[in-house]
UniProtKB/TrEMBL annotation:
Organism, scientific name: Streptomyces triticiradicis
Record keywords: Methyltransferase, Transferase
A family per Pfam: Methyltransf_19
GO molecular function ontology, one term from the record: methyltransferase activity
Highest taxon of source: Bacteria
The name this protein goes by in its record: SAM-dependent methyltransferase
Biological processes annotated in GO: methylation
Lineage, uppermost ranks: Bacteria, Bacillati, Actinomycetota, Actinomycetes, Kitasatosporales
Gene3D superfamilies assigned to the protein according to its UniProt record, in alphabetical order: Vaccinia Virus protein VP39 (3.40.50.150)
């Protein structure tokens, strides 16, 4: 697949964007001074949280590929950071198909890097917003077979959708398009594990024009309503693993879970 560079929407570098702040936290270079200004004021734990999110995504995606899941819809992709989701899953299932989605134009400018699939597999990219799930699903249907299991990946995304934008309904609508045997993979910043840190992070993002909706464990668990949580259930990001080799245990203000669609 090729990208029409003339179709690139303009970048708005006057406002911070979550994908670019996240890139800075991961040590990336694809961000702007306005993003750096937000990221630098965050507590050091924010960098840990970004890393923990990525490591959870790697473990969960690898486990799903090992279970035979070979279709992935990753919403809120962010700027490419090696290894990307498709590199993880296609290393296990070379014919896996991956559709990436993000709403930041800078991610589109890096889409060609995302689209380097294994010869047997497929990767695709759509610029869209999770608040318009129908647009995402409509495009994804051209690549993914919605009669077969799909892993829906929402990594550190839904805490950027506050309650007034009905985050739970968005996820429920997306999950509702998936066939039985599919999975929801979700990580979400907590408001109750480290309340003071959560309040500090929320305030600094707000100064940069980014509204956050951190949630309690019970509120995050609602995203999995009607689904079967995979062991170990809804835990912190560093506590979620399925292999005999446990990740290094450290404090985490991120909830993470994987659940199967009935």
């Amino acid at each position: 697949m090729t990208i029409d560079r003339q179709s690139f929407p303009p970048l708005d570098t006057s406002k911070a964007h979550p994908a670019r702040v996240y890139d800075w936290l991961l040590g990336g270079k694809d961000n702007y001074p306005v993003d750096e200004a937000v990221a630098e004021k965050l507590p050091p734990e924010a960098r840990d949280a970004a890393r923990q999110n990525r490591e959870f995504m790697h473990r969960a995606s690898a486990w799903l590929a090992e279970q035979g899941v070979d279709q992935f819809l990753d919403i809120g992709t962010g700027i490419p950071t090696q290894p990307n989701l498709h590199q993880i899953v296609q290393g296990i299932a070379p014919s896996a198909k991956v559709v990436y989605t993000d709403n930041d134009p800078i991610v589109l400018r890096h889409a060609e890097a995302l689209l380097v699939s294994s010869p047997e597999g497929v990767t695709d990219y759509i610029q869209a917003d999770v608040r318009r799930p129908q647009d995402i699903v409509e495009h994804a249907r051209h690549v993914l077979d919605f009669s077969r299991p799909i892993a829906l990946s929402l990594i550190a995304l839904m805490h950027f959708i506050p309650d007034e934008q009905d985050a739970h309904s968005i996820v429920r609508n997306l999950v509702g398009t998936l066939p039985s045997g599919s999975y929801l993979v979700l990580s979400h910043a907590s408001s109750d594990v480290y309340p003071e840190l959560s309040a500090q992070v929320t305030a600094e993002y707000a100064k940069g024009g980014i509204q956050l909706g951190f949630r309690t464990r019970a509120e995050v668990e609602r995203f999995f309503d009607g689904l079967d949580l995979v062991a170990p259930g809804l835990v912190t990001a560093t506590e979620w693993f399925r292999s005999d080799r446990a990740p290094e245990q450290e404090g985490s203000g991120i909830y993470a879970g994987v659940a199967r669609v009935r």
